[in-house]
Amino acid sequence: MQIKALCGALGSEIQGVNLATVDGNQMGVIRDTFHKSHVLVFPEQDLEPAAQVAFTEHFGPAEPHPLKTRATVDGFDTVLILENKPGQPGAPNDYWHSDISHSEVPPAASCLHALTIPDGHGDTMFCNMVAAYEGLSDGMKALITPLRALHSGMATYERSLQSNDARKIDPSEIKPPHAHPIVRTHPKSGKKSLFVNPHFTAGIEGMTDEESKTILDVLYAAAIQPENIYRHRWQPGDVLIWDNRSVMHYAVRDYTEDMPRKMHRTTAGGEVPA
Ligand code: OGA
Ligand code: MN
Questions:
Q1: pLDDT tens, position by position, 228-254
Q2: Share of the chain above pLDDT 70, in %
Q3: CB of 110 closer than 6 angstroms to any ligand 1 atom
Q4: Which is catalytic among the residues 65, 70, 99, 113?
Q5: Coil, strand or helix at 160
Q6: For the segment 60-114, what is each residue's pLDDT rounded down to a tens digit?
Q7: Residue 17: CB within 6 Å of ligand 1?
Q8: What is the C-alpha separation between 83 and 34, in angstroms, rounded?
Q9: With a 6 A CB cut-off, is 93 part of the ligand 1 pocket?
Q10: What distance in angstroms lies between residue 133's CA and the mean position of ligand 1's atoms?
Q11: Distance (Å, rounded) from C-alpha 272 to C-alpha 274?
């Protein structure tokens, strides 16, 4: 395998491995690189849904989406279809987020396999939340370390109103907001990261909206500095996996429904953030 850093912020590209037949030794190297780089890109893969599930399960059990917001591949309720095509604009993901952070046990990792890409459009950005935490002052670290933030699934409900590739969710299906520590420690790397995002984080426990917003805005601005970001330009065949515990991501919405884009997404279960 050849491994190369994608930029100074995060991300590694790994060539010379077929993910459909990856062995235990290769997985050891892949996992180590994942914990250092947070995002891995494997170009030119040809992964059938069953093989994508098997690869994902090296990072945690493959999980269906808790709100069943999207179509899935026949026979695979853990393989979500993200599709933008004429008459069916794909659901937007153009906001910084960590997948399903409103869950009690948010996913460890998400994996996208690019099938159809509008050439040069529909990039995805990733932001290093370990670097975001480490760059804060000692004073800000001390302020936020004991705090918990509330994460709400209402954002997913609101998004379901904006697209027609997603099932219409009823607001009664959305659970009350869930609190997670603002600073979490990665169970494998031991690194601390910021675990808040402007999409699902609704506020800070025990604070007014105004106080929450003031602090969260400082954290988001620190996080999304250009130096903390990798922007992935997709090629069909790419498989990309990211660590939801240590990155936020943002899908750049610079395409229209007449520019087909199709991905298969799988999600690996994680642990209660601590
Ligand atoms: C997602 C997501 C990004 C993209 O599936 O969770 O944010 O670029 N997708 O499609
Ligand atoms: Mn996402």
A1: 999 999 999 999 999 999 999 999 999
A2: 98
A3: yes
A4: 99
A5: helix
A6: 999 999 888 889 999 999 999 999 999 988 888 999 999 999 999 999 999 999 9
A7: no
A8: 27
A9: yes
A10: 23
A11: 6
Superfamily for 2-268? Clavaminate synthase-like (3.60.130.10)
Whether 97 is catalytic is yes
**Is the distance from CB of 75 to CB of 59 less than 8 angstroms?**
no
220's tokens: 């988001």
CA–CA distance, 8 with 57 (Å, rounded to integer): 28
**Residue range 48-54: mean pLDDT, rounded:** 98
Atom index in ligand 1 nearest the CA of residue 90 equals 10
**Domain boundaries along the sequence of the chain:** 2-268
Closest CA to 228 of 218, 217, 236, 220: 220
pTM for this model (two decimals): 0.96
| Assigned token pair, 15 | 């060539």
3-state secondary structure of 189: coil
Atom of ligand 1 nearest to the CA of 252: 8
- In the DSSP assignment, the letter for residue 219 is H
Active site residue 249: yes
**What pLDDT, in 10s, does the model give residues 14-23?**
999 999 999 9
Mean pLDDT value across the chain: 95
Q: Which of 39, 97, 110, 199 to mutate to test the pocket of ligand 1 (most atoms within 8 A of CB)?
A: 110
